Amino acid sequence: MTENHLLVLDGGRLRVARALAPLLRENGLETLDRMMALSGGTMMRSVPGRSTVRIELKLPSGGTQVTFLKRYEPAYLTPTRRLLRLLHWPGAKDEALNEWEAIHALRAAGFSTAEPIAVGQNQSFGVVLRSFLLTAEIAGGIAAHDYARSLEARPRRELALQVAELTRRFHGAGFVHKDCYLSHLFVVERGSGRELFFIDLQRVARPRGFRRRWVIKDLAQLAYSAQLSGATSRDLLAFTRAYFGRDKLTPADRRRLTSVLRRVQTLHRRGPKYDVIWDQPGVHPPNV
Q1: Which of 88, 118, 174, 93 has the alpha carbon at shortest distance from 1?
Q2: Cβ pair 288, 133 in contact under 8 A
Q3: What distances in angstroms separate CA 29 from CA 20, 37, 108, 118, 154, one per listed residue?
Q4: Residue 153, Cβ neighbours under 10 Å: how many?
Q5: pLDDT in the model for residue 288
Q6: What span, in angstroms and rounded, lies between the C-alpha atoms of 280 and 288?
Q7: Are strands 6-9 and 14-17 parallel, antiparallel or unpaired?
């Protein structure tokens, strides 16, 4: 987002999309402390030091805007992570700001995400200990793992091809997600078609090193969550061919595929860190 489209408030602790600043003013949310102390709404996710809440804010013109507020508190940081953040270690950046920047980078590259409204940070001795990200609801969005479960064989295969093309473009643009489960893609039906949105972008990066490792991890997470959502071996084969862009895989493709399948088996043995939250039928992640 350019400076012309950005408003800085609360002594530099808040950055707000200028066009959406009236929304914050209408709800008295023009400071970091007010945003962090905001009560009410529906809790969508809560782990020590981090929560995501669905909140309806009043629009200046009347009516409401559904938003999702993701907040980070000091309890979210282990002593080691605090030290790494102090040292500006790669990957230890404040997740709220990282997601804000990732949203803008993805949108600039032609990918669909939730609309960013505001981000805020509070530092202590050079370390961000409290932060938040506020985004708008993805209207009509359905988590892709739930959406896939509702499909018959042919439309499920079509969805697999669409996800493969999206993932190929995403990786081709230099991005990796690091939490690339189907629950972190939202599907919005558009007439006879559908649009896919990336969500939960707090760990998205454009790594300069170890890129192959992260790409394999993304692909394994997609395959694992697809299997939990009812994908067949034919669905996964169609995804693989579409992702690599060829009907016959090369030896290099097969080596990468072997690495992906090995990681998928690992996920089936131990599950992802938040599998109870993200991958159980009927459990819906926040579209933030």
Answers
A1: 118
A2: yes
A3: 12, 10, 27, 10, 47
A4: 11
A5: 33
A6: 19
A7: antiparallel
Neighbours of 106 (CB within 10 A): 19
pLDDT of residue 83: 82
| Average pLDDT rounded to a whole number, residues 197-217 | 92
Tally: H helices and E strands in the chain? 10, 11
Q: What is the 3-state secondary structure (H, E, C) of 143-188?
A: EHHHHHHCCCHHHHHHHHHHHHHHHHHHHHCCCECCCCCHHHEEEE
Q: Copy the structure tokens of residue 153.
A: 């064989």
φ, ψ (nearest 5 deg) of residue 178 = 80, -10
Q: What is 142-278's CATH number? A: 1.10.510.10
Instruction: Read off the amino acid at residue 97.
Output: L
Q: Which residue(s) pair with 155 in the sheet?
A: none
Does residue 227 register a pLDDT over 60? yes
Query: Six-digit token pair at 166?
Result: 């999206």
With a pLDDT cut of 90, the percent of the chain lying above it is 77
pTM for the predicted model, two decimal places: 0.89
pLDDT band per the 50, 70, 90 thresholds, residue 1 = low
> What burial letters (b/e) apply to 8-30, b meaning 16+ CB within 10 Å?
ebbeebbbbbeebbebbeebebb
Q: Which residues contact 52 (CB under 8 A, 6 or more apart)?
A: 43, 44, 45, 46, 68, 69, 70, 71, 286, 288
Q: Where are the domains of the chain?
A: 3-136, 142-278
- For 125, other C-beta atoms within 10 Å of its C-beta total 7
